[in-house]
Amino acid sequence: MLGLALAGVLAIICGKADGFASPIKMSHRWSGSTSPLEAVESSSTAGGQTEDLPQALIFDCDGVLADTERDGHRPAFNSAFKIKNLDCEWSVELYGKLLSVGGGKERMTAHWDEVGWPDCAKTADERSVLVKELHLLKTALFNQAVVDGEIPLRTGVIRLVDEAIYRKVPLAVCSTSNDKAVTNLVKTLMGKERLERMQIFAGDIVEKKKPNPDIYDLAKDTMGLDPARVVVIEDSHIGLTAAKAAGMNCLVTKSSYTGDEDFSAADQVTEELGEDGEASTSVTLATLGAILRERASAASS
């Protein structure tokens, strides 16, 4: 039974499935009597005020779009270890420490370099094969959890994405996660229409992962961006470090693992994006515009 489920998810990951129905409840998407963009138009034009708009809005995936690490990726890793008959289980506390390493394959490698490799992986080639097989299996299990509706979007994500779409602000996702996993999460939780408005930069598309700035540099070059006019939304210290090293502005929205990390370099830090776009605590394009104006003011003084 597990084999059939994994085969189906692997078909999605490898691009061999034409599509799949989302079982996600409406509470995980936009809710209300008006359409998303109608509601955004109403709140964006309230009071007749205008604000500076980012040249692009870039989201991290894990921890930002959805709080996936503790209850998504970690259980998927542990299930993959069990399926491969490995005596390894990552606790909530241990996985939090391992998140200092960007990338799933890199995370497994760093862990076993420290505690010792399984008996089935004595040589460098065997270790490389094991890590790749485990990561593919973990990705399949994670994607199944997303499709099954076990991982909801974080509060305010849909609202801010729809505001950016309405105001014609280009959108992207920059993540160390597998590109198919990121695409699957966005498509399943946000819908095909929103996915089509986003550029995805993820996985092994760059050699050096966060905290290196390579993924953001790639987005900058591909999209033709001025980094000083870009706002990134991250949830971790390593993500913040990557964004700032690329010369971009960064707003941090804390996640379950990152509340105590050092965010002193961030342009703004918040607990969440907030569901009500009119509330003073919610992050909107006006919020991001204020970050851009502050940077421009600082640069001219």
UniProtKB/TrEMBL annotation:
The lineage of its organism: Eukaryota, Sar, Stramenopiles, Ochrophyta, PX clade. It comes from the Eukaryota. This is Haloacid dehalogenase-like hydrolase family protein. SUPFAM superfamilies: HAD-like (SSF56784). Residues 1-19 form the signal peptide. Transmembrane segments: none annotated. PANTHER family: CBBY-LIKE PROTEIN, XYLULOSE-1,5-BISPHOSPHATE (XUBP) PHOSPHATASE. Pfam families: Hydrolase. The keyword Signal applies. GO terms for molecular function: hydrolase activity. InterPro entries: CbbY-like, HAD-like_sf, HAD-SF_hydro_IA, HAD_sf, PGP-like_dom2. Keywords: Signal.
